[in-house]
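Title: Comparing notes on inverse folding

I've been comparing how different people in this forum approach sequence design from structure. To keep things fair, I'm posting one structure and asking everyone to reply with a full sequence. Here's the target:
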């Protein structure tokens, strides 16, 4: 027999995960900034910092990333390797107590799909430029803008309580 509290918490988890996935995907697809290619300013990437605060956000972030990557020019590759590298970054973010340090994992792991792209498409020196472009744009969105936003949000006790208790 299913207990009411278990059902409620499972439903709450599914709804929150679906909202996070939808937010990530929609922000990637509708914000008029470069979302795919060598320079990516995905505003949705700020949401990856949710994984730092609570691991329960990881499934929604992974699903949102996979959905957003379906629209990439290299969809199959980005869905598999981009999503996998994001998942690894989220798990590593859980192992640190510092928001800024946690924000660096997505920046560093963005190179995984870039490496694959290099092996598939490019054998010239353009790879290094592309890799640094990926990493720089991820750094700007997550480690600068994202960290600033979440540091401001940390001052709102009610928001943080909701964020952490999931």
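Reply #1:
Here's my take.
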């Amino acid at each position: 027999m299913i207990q009411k509290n278990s059902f409620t918490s499972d439903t709450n988890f599914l709804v929150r995960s679906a909202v996070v996935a939808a937010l990530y995907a929609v922000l990637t697809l509708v914000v008029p900034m470069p979302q795919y290619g060598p320079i990516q300013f995905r505003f949705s990437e700020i949401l990856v910092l949710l994984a730092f605060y609570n691991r329960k956000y990881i499934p929604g972030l992974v699903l949102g990333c996979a959905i957003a990557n379906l629209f990439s020019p290299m969809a199959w590759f980005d869905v598999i390797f981009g999503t996998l590298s994001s998942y690894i970054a989220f798990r590593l973010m859980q192992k640190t107590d510092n928001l800024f340090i946690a924000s660096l994992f997505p920046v560093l792991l963005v190179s995984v799909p870039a490496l694959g792209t290099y092996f598939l498409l490019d054998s010239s020196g353009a790879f290094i430029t592309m890799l640094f472009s990926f990493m720089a744009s991820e750094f700007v969105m997550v480690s600068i803008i994202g960290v600033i936003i979440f540091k401001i949000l940390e001052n709102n006790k009610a928001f943080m309580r909701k964020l952490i208790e999931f």
